[in-house]
Specification:
The complex is a heterodimer of chains A (197) and B (315). Chain A is an all-alpha fold. Chain A is built from nine helices and no strands. The radius of gyration of chain A is 20 Å and the shape is elongated. In chain B, strands 3, 4, 7, 8, 9, 11 and 12 form a seven-stranded mixed sheet that branches. The chains are: A mainly alpha (197), B alpha+beta (315). The interface between A and B is medium-sized, with 29 and 29 residues.
């Protein structure tokens, strides 16, 4: 999961050695967009872990969910740092202006903030400490997924391939959960009525 | 006795346009290869421009953007929405033969081939800033001639108040026009007020960097209006219509709250999604600071065209 980052790191190194050699005509944009698309890809991968484990009947896959999620968080943070440094030039006024005035930045920034408590409480210790509330808190990831999708949607200009692909993936992952929840409810109801007889 | 003769040519026997175009392309490239010359654009050999000559442009005291950037970082959605798509796919566009149809409020409407169009017109180099609405900019040495010189050949009538331009529509050669993911209603159209089109800064370009235009930059003929955002400078023009009423322009139709008809470069009026106060100037590097955007992209001499107009409302 760190591979795309490593490859990007190599490109950045080459670009710094010989400007114009590795990242195309607009290197800053290349870096920020690259990190951004990996961020949303990892976020979708995180959301895909539990449906996948159900689909292939391998419950132990859930163990990898934390790792994928933390990688997603890392890409989001790097994407944001890239924006801060390469696009906004670390100028606080223009960053504050962007966050307030540009809806796609507002929603992206909100997603980043919402990810922080999830990353912090992703450890087993916090999971134990929070008990049932841990699950409730981590449902925030659904809102984050939607926010990330809106961020991409509001960024797009003239074409809608990216938002469409991410949107379909998100809809599929949400749909699977809804179907799963409905089925387990039915099963519980059936079991309950079975016991009653 | 009358016998009805059957049509002697079945539709299936007619050579499809794409095939004969590719044959022509093949012949042209093989001829050029045989002659040891570079592949000519719109039937004119690459040396044509050099033989014909053009007056050298005036330096503007700003670094000229490298040709590699100007020819590899393009917005030409007819070939895809990525900046690298036009350079990769625009070679599929056939630019020979090429004619431009002029109609509407003109005394002498007609269709004109490129060589006829350029007959009697002096070509000149113009070194212009190009400011994209996406807040990046370049400095490009164009080769062309004032828009007015061409329009005058067709004698606009007194009713003509606007000019509408249309880009080639040919989905079989322009993959962006075939794309299922495009929200644009092709062909691309743009427009100017007639007095804007008549301004001496507004030119038709047929070349850049001392050569004929590459396809991805709008070959064989495009508009360049340096005080307006780049999307006004429509590429690969096939039709010009003079009208009494303001024509539609593609980006305005698509997203009216973000792109207006005028689209004058204006650092004080932000795009709803980003600031227009500054721009990044090519060549770029990782940590190159942005520069401030100038009113009318630094071409203050056009201001009189808009005196008394609210430029915030007419963005």
């Amino acid at each position: 999961m760190g591979l795309p980052l490593a490859l990007l790191g190599v490109d950045v190194y080459r670009e710094l050695q010989v400007p114009g050699s590795a990242l195309g005509p607009d290197p800053a944009d290349e870096i920020i967009r690259g990190l951004g698309s990996w961020a949303i890809t990892m976020l979708l991968a995180t959301l895909a872990v539990s449906p996948l484990s159900r689909l292939v009947h391998r419950p132990w896959l859930i163990r990898f969910r934390r790792m994928v999620g933390v990688w997603a968080f890392a890409y989001v943070v790097l994407h944001f740092v890239g924006y801060l440094g390469l696009l906004a030039g670390f100028q606080l006024a223009s960053i504050a202006d962007d966050v307030v005035k540009r809806p796609y930045i507002t929603v992206g920034f909100a997603a980043l903030l919402a990810l922080i408590p999830l990353a912090v409480t992703s450890t087993r210790g916090w999971q134990r400490r929070l008990g049932r509330r841990w699950r409730t808190l981590h449902r925030l990831v659904y809102a984050i997924g939607i926010a990330a999708w809106i961020h991409v949607l509001w960024l797009s200009k003239g074409g809608f391939a990216d938002p469409l692909v991410y949107g379909l993936a998100l809809a599929f992952l949400f749909g699977e959960r809804i179907v799963f929840a409905m089925r387990s409810k039915q099963r519980r109801a059936a079991r309950a009525s079975g016991q009653a007889q | 006795m009358l016998t009805k003769k059957r049509a002697s040519i079945k539709p299936s026997e007619i050579t499809p346009e794409s095939v004969y175009r590719s044959r022509r392309r093949f012949m042209r490239t093989s001829l050029a290869a045989a002659a040891g010359a570079a592949v000519p654009a719109f039937g004119l050999p690459a040396s044509w421009l050099a033989e014909r000559g053009f007056t050298a442009g005036e330096e503007i005291g700003e670094e000229i953007t490298p040709e590699a950037d100007a020819t590899q970082y393009n917005n030409f959605y007819e070939f895809g929405t990525e900046k690298s798509d036009p350079a990769q796919y625009a070679h599929a566009m056939t630019i020979d033969p090429w004619t431009v149809k002029v109609s509407g409020e003109v005394a002498k409407p007609g269709e004109i081939g490129l060589e006829d169009m350029l007959a009697g017109i002096d070509l000149e180099e113009r070194i212009y800033r190009l400011r994209c609405v996406e807040a990046w900019s370049m400095v490009i040495p164009w080769i062309g001639f004032p828009v007015k010189k061409l329009l005058d050949k067709f004698e606009p009538t007194g009713n003509a108040k606007f000019v509408e331009f249309k880009t080639l529509l040919r989905p079989q050669e322009m993959r962006g026009q075939r794309s299922l993911f495009s929200s644009i209603d092709w062909p691309y159209v743009e427009g100017l007020r007639l007095d804007e089109a008549h301004h001496p800064l507004a030119i038709f370009a047929v070349g850049m960097y001392g050569k004929l235009l590459p396809n991805q930059n709008g070959a064989p003929i495009r508009l360049v209006v340096p005080w307006k955002y780049g999307f006004k400078s429509i590429k690969s023009i096939v039709e010009i219509r003079l009208t009494a009423r303001q024509p539609r322009n593609t980006w305005n139709v698509l997203q009216p709250s973000e792109y207006g008809f005028y689209a004058n470069v204006n650092p004080t009026v932000d795009h709803p999604r980003w600031s227009q106060a500054s721009e990044k100037r090519f060549p770029l590097s990782l940590f190159k600071p942005r520069i401030e955007t100038q009113m009318f992209n630094g071409y203050g001499e056009v201001a009189s065209l808009y005196s008394g107009m609210n430029l915030r409302r007419n963005y």
